[in-house]
Amino acid sequence: ENQLNNDYYFSNPLDRGHLASRSSAAWGDSRREAKLAADDTFYYSNAALQHGNFNQDEWLALEDWVKDLTLDSTNKISVISGPIFGEFARSITPQGRSTALIPSGFFKVVVYIDQQHQLAVRAFMMMQDEEALRDKRGKQMFNFQRYQVSITEIEERTGLIFPQQLPDKNPLFFNENPDAVTDLNVHQFPEHIEVDAPDEMISMDDPRETVRDEEIPIFIAAALVNASGNEALGEWVSVINLSNEQVDFAGWKLKDPQDELVIEGVLGPGEAMKIGPLSPIKLGNQGGTISLYNPVGERVDRVKYPVQPNSLEDRPVIFAMRDLTMID
């Protein structure tokens, strides 16, 4: 009676999003046992109303990271996933059926024994409807962006209570902590760390980078990711100065998760420049991130670009019109 069925997924952009993925459950003492475990993930009780783009791209990427986790020492991990319903969650009412709330986002908590044989915890949230999750504290969390967060924030947003060992072993902070400010350079509470590659995840006692995205009006405006011919020569990134002052870019850097490129140039107010070739930076056609840092190592901007198929060859990705609105 209360179970959502295919009526809720028919002729709309919502997918039957697996909370426990088939590939993660497909294990056992025999091939038959592994298949039965995988088949158990296809019940509606394991499905949630997920936007198609969310389910087929960003949530899937997080599931793949969990499946391929190499930080553990026992070849075993525990994963807890579930929905988050915002204060103004949207709903769907199929003909003849009861109204169901659409999750505003989802969480995933990963627990394992690390290489030092200690309990380790990583917690993530992803939004699919940030309008329903506008927070009383801090900045907006953008749709389809993976954030590493604290266990306490997941508890507050869901009403769940996790064993005390989990928040104690999670490296991110929810409440203001003067020692974290001094020792780890944490300046935002609760913490939300954008994570689009394993290298961006925060571990226990990792110092945080200084982020000034909201303060300095210098932006990555566009990038040519899928260039025809020799991509290493054809790729470029453009940067725009939307401040009221001339900016000297000597010592500034563009970075991807693996490499960095020192840039130079001078831009007056409202001026832009194209930077390329980008080697050693590589803009992968399967999607990625680009970040801009000033000479003292503060992050001034960060953009995420999607998969670039052949149909988008030689068509730049435009970032300048992205929503930069910050809310209280």
Task: Give a structural overview.
The structure is a single chain. The protein is of the alpha+beta class. The chain folds into two domains: 6-200, Extracellular Endonuclease, Chain A (3-Layer(aba) Sandwich), CATH 3.40.570; 218-318, Immunoglobulin-like (Sandwich), CATH 2.60.40. It has seven helices and 19 strands. The chain has helices spanning 22-25, 31-39, 52-67, 151-158, 165-169, 178-184, 231-234, and strands at residues 14-18, 47-51, 72-84, 91-92, 100-101, 105-114, 119-127, 146-148, 193-194, 218-224, 236-241, 247-248, 253-255, 260-262, 266-267, 272-275, 288-293, 299-305, 317-318. The longest helix has 16 residues, at 52-67. The chain is globular and about 65 Å long. The chain starts with 13 loop residues before the first strand and ends in a 10-residue tail after the last strand. The model is unreliable at 133-141 and 323-328 (pLDDT under 50).
Give the oligomer, counting copies of the same chain as homo and different chains as hetero. single chain
User: Mean of residue pLDDT?
Assistant: 87
The CATH first-level class of the largest domain comes to Alpha Beta
Overall morphology: globular
Which sequence of SSEs, written as H and E, runs from N to C? EHHEHEEEEEEHHHEEHEEEEEEEEE
Strands, count: 19
Number of helices: 7
Structural class: alpha+beta
Portion in helices: 10-25%
Within the CATH hierarchy, at the fold level, what is the topology of the largest domain?
Extracellular Endonuclease, Chain A
Named CATH architecture of the largest domain: 3-Layer(aba) Sandwich
Distance between the termini: 41 Å
In what range is the share of β-strand residues? 25-35%
